[in-house]
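Per reviewer request, we include the raw input and output of the structure prediction for the construct analysed in the revised manuscript.
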Amino acid sequence: MSLLGETGSVARLDISRIRKDEVMRVATKLVARKGWQNTTLADIAREADVSLGVITYHFSSKDEIIRGVMEKYVGENLTYLYQSLQEYDDPVEKLTNLVRLTLRETKRDKEIYYVHFDYWAKISWNDEIREMNAQFYDFARDWTADCVRRGIEAGVFREVDPREAATLINSLLIGIQAQHAFDEEAFDFEGVAEMAEKAVLGFLLA
């Protein structure tokens, strides 16, 4: 694809955004490998091949980097799920694919889950991080609850409290994701993912 516009001038690249994204990508890689406590700004700068000044220009602290990583991941993940599920009108197909795609994300981007666990460790003393996590999971419950509610209204799912059902479903998925991240060889991931789909539908189908 040409970088030349209609006038022949070179299209402006957002170098600042590219550098910021690269810092977050490298931070994700290093945190997944070493943990947040053992990752320094100097490590990130060296791996990203930028100066410390570039990092401090974009991020006021190390915590702000991990916050940016999680915000970017959550935004991209939710956009991916939303766009992928738009093609399904049937409540059973929509919920089944919500389960399937959520679990597939675990294998698609494993490093982010190690960062996520590091992020969770901060919620006991960092109010901002706790609030961000709470908002994300509240949104996830609402989204799953909407799938359940639509199934109930269509007469496909039995009468349950949609948000309570969503909490149960999301807890099941988070548990599978966490166990797989801890030990990839502990169980057949694809087999357990299929069992999760059946368990969710078995719980809900009228």
